[in-house]
Design a protein that fits this description.
This protein has 412 residues and is an alpha/beta fold. The chain has helices at residues 53-71, 87-95, 100-117, 133-145, 174-183, 223-235, 249-263, 296-301, 306-314, 326-344, 352-363, 368-383, 396-408, and strands at 20-23, 28-31, 38-42, 76-82, 125-128, 149-152, 155-158, 199-204, 219-221, 239-245, 270-276, 279-281, 284-285, 322-323.
């Protein structure tokens, strides 16, 4: 599956600091130390509807990590999946009377367009669930040889007790796990399972559903095994960062880790588990099930500059939960206009301290609000908001334009 076209970003004349991130598993902020190219896996969309701002906030957040690593001198191998066959997709296709493949292709293409407009760096490998079926089957066979897979009727399940570290990624107690598993697509009450938390790795064929051949009969992959197989195939074990929204902490990332750690014993699936916060709207988490969505494509089609959308997202720390408002978007439009006005002057307030602060802020757990504030302050000084314009640095605009793009993805 193809990704989207990469933006051209400037190379900075200075090297950014080492990147540190809050690790969900340990509860601490840790410094990343890639050995070779930094390896990043971020869970992708299930393409049964358009990209909403909750999605955008997650992918813009991890785009900051991609940029921060590159600015610190690292190559980056970034992998993302597309869950282009799954229950929600099939249900939506049936409801609106459209072929599920056509629906997946249409919404994936819209996602590509949204990401390109937001200047998100594309993954090196963009892999659909359907095309990953051969490596999923390979991984299930490895788990089967390890005694970690068993059959319930036509389905195969992963035994969570096979992973001695199960539960360490999320840190949740069993009652919380059971509750979240039931809420997020699990089947804790199914008869015949060894443990209520065991998850499907191969779903046997059902009437009217797509299926593919396998050693266990026709069927399709479970959700969690898909990401584990793609990540292991394209990045290996012990990846630098496993990323996604905070709603993926459990069960998705816990199960992915379990699959990978049983398949590759002695190695943690990821060194850091990083999670983006949830974006709300009208008092609730923005989600398709609630119908309270603000779509990136709808804003773009309303002539909203995608850089203003990105700037509005960057005014919130990527790990925070917050609520989208139209007022925030309009403020971002005004701020973007001021940034561009200041940059167009050519000269401005001294840029070197601003560049240093922006790079330091993004390297510090992707603190975009702090970085944005630094550029806001430079703009105010350059435009003389307080009545005293500062144009002492003749090369200021070039430096600010470069760091705004290279570190924050904002094209001025």
């Amino acid at each position: 599956m193809r990704a989207w076209n990469p933006p051209t970003i400037p190379t900075l004349p200075v090297t950014a600091p080492a990147v540190s991130l809050h690790d969900t598993s340990s509860g601490r902020q840790v410094t990343t130390s890639p050995d070779g190219p930094a390896r990043l896996y971020v869970c992708g969309i299930t393409p049964y509807d358009a990209t909403h701002l909750g999605h955008a906030a997650t992918y813009v957040g991890f785009d900051l990590l991609n940029r921060a690593w590159r600015n610190a001198g690292h190559d980056v191998t970034y992998v993302q999946n597309v869950t282009d066959v799954d229950d929600p997709l099939l249900e939506r296709a049936t409801k609106v009377n459209i072929d599920w493949v056509e629906l997946a292709e249409r919404e994936t293409e819209l996602f590509r367009q949204d990401m390109q407009a937001l200047r998100v760096l594309p993954p090196a490998a963009y892999i659909g669930a359907v095309e990953s079926i051969p490596v999923v089957i390979d991984l299930i066979q490895v788990l089967e040889r390890a005694g970690a897979v068993y059959q319930v009727e036509q389905d195969l399940y992963f035994s969570v007790t096979a992973d001695g570290a199960f539960g360490e990624e999320s840190g949740f107690d069993r009652d919380t796990m059971l509750s979240l598993f039931a809420e997020r697509g699990g089947d804790p009450d199914r008869a015949g399972k060894r443990d209520p938390l065991d998850c499907v790795v191969w779903r046997g064929e059902r009437p009217g559903e797509p299926s593919w051949p396998s050693p266990w009969g026709a069927g399709r992959p479970g959700w969690h095994i898909e990401c584990a197989a793609i990540a292991l195939t394209h990045l290996g074990s012990g990846i630098d960062v496993q990323g996604g929204g905070s709603d993926l902490v459990f069960p998705h990332h816990e199960m992915c880790a379990g699959h990978a750690q049983v398949a590759r014993p002695g190695t943690s699936f990821a060194q850091v588990y990083s999670h983006a916060g949830m974006v709300g709207y009208d008092g609730e988490k923005m989600s398709k099930s609630r119908g309270n969505l603000v779509f990136v494509s709808a804003l773009r089609n309303s002539d909203i500059d995608p850089m203003a959308i990105r700037l509005a997202l960057l005014r919130h720390h990527f790990r925070s939960d917050w609520e989208w408002t139209d007022a925030e978007l309009f403020e971002a439009l005004d701020s973007l206009a001021q940034w561009r006005k200041a940059a167009a002057l050519g000269t401005g307030a001294p840029a070197a301290p601003v560049v240093e602060e922006v790079l330091a802020a993004v390297a510090d757990d992707l603190d975009a609000p702090r970085a944005v504030a630094a550029i806001d302050a430079w703009v105010a000084a350059t435009l003389g908001v307080d009545g005293l314009a500062d144009t002492s640095d003749p090369d200021a605009a070039v430096a600010i334009i470069a760091v705004a793009d290279a570190a924050l993805g904002i094209q001025l």
